[in-house]
Structures are given as structure tokens and as C-alpha cells.
Amino acid sequence: MTAPVEPVREAAPLAVVGAGSIGVAFAIVFARSGREVRVWDPFPDALERARQELAERLALLARHGLVEEGPETVASRVSFVADLVEAVAEVVLVQECAPELVDVKKDLLGKIADHAPAAVLASSSSAIGPSAIGAGLPDRVRERLLVGHPGNPPYLLPVVEVVPSSATAEWATARARATYADAGLRPVTVSHEPEGFVFNRLQGAILREAYCLVRDGVATVGEIDEVVRSGLGRRWSFIGPFETVDLNTRGGLASHAEKMGPAYARMGVERGQDDPWTPDLVASAVAQRRAALPLEEWADRVRWRDEQLMRLTPLWEEARTTS
Fold first, then answer.
1. pLDDT of amino acid 11
2. 3-hydroxyacyl-CoA dehydrogenase NAD binding domain: which residues (predicted)?
3. Where are the domains of the chain?
4. What angle do CA 163, 183, 289 make, to 5 degrees?
5. Are the C-beta atoms of residues 95 and 26 closer than 8 Å to each other?
6. What does the H/E/C string look like for 100-167?
């Protein structure tokens, strides 16, 4: 795989291709970090709508103290460009935000590649892998192509999944991660291109079970939302599922797997998913958790968890009363 065609300029401009809600959101993320951003869309009315949406969202963020500068200053870094060649000229990363259709993305990124020869080509795809998007494109394009899938909206949910294909050059993955991190996002590299990546596979697992529970008459839609909103979601707002169960059981993840693993296995089989937590799999997960949190620090972390829940409780209660 070749190196970038030309050297990268410090704080070089970025391009957002597609002026829908995700495109506007990425423009806010990049501009808020001080970068020049060019937004392109094939439809002039979409560009005008995006301009208005950008101003409205920045004003709302400013009202909540989430922009360090005035919203007008941040907005001044974003230009709305009708010409695609002008939009991507000399940029170091193109964030493609076209509809979730592989042929549309392939055609668009193929056109962009010739006019942005040193740029990383990052698709905002939610489920389509970079290999599918890049199939049939020249190697010089595929080596710069990857998926940069955000949480929605990325200016409030900072995780971004960086998904390279086997054809993606290491420099392209590294540049994408560095660009996102510089913009205040938290990049997570995803291997093997599973459909839906990590974000939507986790979300999908919950949704599949939620639909089954409604179908089986176990609980209503509102009751299931309440369990997540007032239970699981509160903890997950600052710790993930592995840390949650690690802190829920004295002895940590190993103890939890021993005590609860068989029950979770039966639940999976009930839904036709026979994926038991094997001893090797549990040992790998435990080793990663213990590297992050030695058992001798477990009690302190439990107290920390409880304090975070206490600190956030007034905000959650306020949200409930105003919803």
C-alpha cells in the first residue's frame, strides 16, 4: 500500500459530503474543534436547510454551555459548497454522509477520490462494511477507504467506530483516528467488519429481545423503556456492560460469569442463540477487566459508581419531569 500522495498540512480542512442531519452534526463536531469544514450536497435546498439547522443546533449547544466560543464563530468555519471538486480540494479527510445504499456510496467516493488524492475517505455507514463499499474500486481508493460510524448525534455522543477493511492502509486508519480524536470524539477501531459493527450489534441485541418481550406479552413497550431508562440506561451512561457486571458481583467478572453464565446461556438458547461463555472466553474478558481494574481496587470503584449515580440522579429526575 502506498503512502499519502502529498504531505498533510496541520489543521488542514475537512469535507462533509451529504448535508443531512448526520452531515450537519459532523460539521458541528469538526468546526467546534477549530477546523475549517466544507459541506457539499447535490441539492441546493439541502444546503440551505443545513445552514439553518447548523445555526439552530449551535445556538442550542451554546445555551447549554457546550461550545467554548460563540455559535457564530463556530459557524463561520463551515462553508456550504455547491461544487464537489471545490469541497474536497486539499482536504485530509472526507466524511461521507450519503444515504445507506452501497451503490450510492461507492459511486460518490469513487468520484471524490480523484479530486482528493491524499484524503482519507470515511463513510458514515451504519452497517455496510468498507469492503462492500470499496468492491470494484481501484486499490488507490480502497487503501484510503474506511467507515467512520458515529453515535447520533456525534456532538453529544462522542464515540465513533473506525472500521478499516483488509485493503485499508495503516496510515489511513491512524489519520482517521487522530482526526476524530482531535475533534473531541472517542474513536474505537472495529475489526473484521461485522455487519452493524459494535454500536448497532449491541443496540440490535437489545431491540430483538425487546420486541420478543412485547410479542410474548411479558411487558409493554413503555414498561420495557422504563426498565432501560431507570435501570440499565442509568448505569450505562457512564460504564459499559462488562464493567457493570464486574462491579455488580463481589469477585468481579469471573464470579459473575460463574454465577450468572448458565442463566444467560439458557436465555440465549430460548431465543435460538447458542453462544455459551466458554472458559477461554471468560478468562480473556476477565484478564482485560483485571488489567483495567485490579481486584484490590474493586470496592473503591463500586463506591465511585454509586457516587456517579448520586450525582446524576437530579439530572435524570429533571429530565423525567420535563419530558
1. 76
2. 14-190
3. 14-189, 199-322
4. 55
5. yes
6. CCHHHHHHHHHHHHHHCCCCEEEECCCCCCHHHHHCCCCHHHHCCEEEEEECCCCCCCCEEEEEECCC
Q: Which residue bears the cell 462492500?
A: 132
Residues contacting 106, CB < 8 A, separation 6+: 133, 134, 135, 136, 137
159 φ/ψ angles, rounded to the nearest 5 degrees: -70, 140
Amino acid at 256: H
Q: Is the pLDDT of residue 126 over 70?
A: yes
Spell out the residues 6+ positions from residue 78 whose beta carbon is closer than 8 angstroms to its own. Answer: 27, 31, 37, 38, 39, 54
CATH class of 199-322: mainly alpha
Which residue, chain included where needed, has cell 469544514? 37
What is the sign of the dihedral through the CA atoms of 75, 20, 16 and 87?
A: negative
**pLDDT given for residue 157 in this prediction:** 97
d(CA 175, CA 169): 10
pLDDT band at 10 (very low <50, low <70, confident <90, very high): low
Give per-residue pLDDT as tens, 252-282.
999 999 999 999 999 999 999 999 999 999 9
What DSSP string runs through 229-262?
Answer: IIIIHHHHTTS-HHHHHHHHSTTHHHHHHHHHHH
- pTM here is 0.92
